[in-house]
Amino acid sequence: MLIPIGTDRRRHGPPWATIILIAANCYVFLVLQDRPGAGNFALVWTRFEWWMPVTYMFTHGGFGHLLGNMIFLWVFGPHAEDALGRGRFILLYFSAGFASAGLHVLSSLVLYPQELAVGLVGASGAIMGVVSLFVLRFHGVRVRFFIWLILPYVFSVRALWVGIAYLGMDLTMALMAIGSEGMGGVAHWAHVGGFLAGGVWAWALRLPEEGTHEIHHAEARKLVAAGAWRSAAKLLEERIAARPGDAELHGEAAVSYEQLQDGREQAIEHWNEHLRLLLLARGYDAAVERFRALVERYRPHDFDPAVLMRIGAAAETRSADDLALPAWMGVAQAHPDSAQAPAAALRAARLLLRRGRNDAARELLEHISRTWPHSEEAMAAAQARRVIEG
Prior knowledge:
Elements: E1 3-7, H1 16-32, H2 52-55, H3 63-84, H4 86-110, H5 124-137, E2 142-148, E3 152-158, H6 159-176, H7 188-204, H8 207-225, H9 229-242, H10 247-258, H11 264-280, H12 284-294, H13 305-317, H14 321-334, H15 341-354, H16 358-371, H17 376-389
Antiparallel strand pairs: 1-2, 2-3
Helix pairs in contact: 1-3, 1-4, 3-4, 3-5, 4-5, 4-7, 5-6, 5-7, 6-7, 8-9, 9-10, 10-11, 11-12, 13-14, 14-15, 15-16, 16-17
């Protein structure tokens, strides 16, 4: 038997929901199944009780059955939990378990009536939903397997092929059992039902697109590492077209264009969008630090006035006056016709006053009065001048 032992994807945090489900399965098997009445935990259609669709998926036919299911849940569950979050991961588990039971009963009614009196037990249907979501969301990730042939052997295969193999095997075995006396002790249609439920979750949330993006993004990073800047920029542009709101992609595209002799304008365009998206996501600290690095090789004039205004405000609240002042002056000097220009100049003047640079502040206030004489900022500038002179 092929036993999954891990993947090449790093988890984002402790998989508490997965741990809770494993603990619940172990508790039922080790503590509750030996108690009187535990025979009603299995799902038996001919003597159906309302709780059976829940209890059957925590009941197992033996220690090997439990161990195998828990290995699968531990290998694939944490990654599905990362993709969905704990609450939705629990919902996935139970909905796949219900779908598994439903398809098992339906297939038995149509194909194997004698199976209706046989109890359905095991978490494998619910876990196949987890596996399905994993292979569709992380279809480029490699899964490691252990197999004992003549000697123990470990190999890895892309997750997409894992899903195809599991689904294909269960469908094949289920179809081969048609016309026989039963399903041979393995509820293959239950596995298929769970797998289909996980697929519905994945497609409804458009998770396969996330997996495709990660594959192409990894390819772009390899091109960047190899110094293939133009090819990297082209691939990143394709990713940006699919995910225009990804600040990281814009930053990586800007870095690639910076390495090209004819790429300065594209780099500025992407840095502008990178900063705008960081600010939009309230990543103010990251935006300010990025701007600090950018002003070493670009002029503030190169950036959009709306971006500069917000960068200036974010820098000021973080006492980074050395960044706030050039940001606002960049708006006033390079974008004098923009709606933000008078306000930017006034904020820069007030900052100069706070720093004791009264002469520079007075000159800037006079500039506001001359350049935008009918603005509210001109009135505020005149009042500030009287305070300075008074």
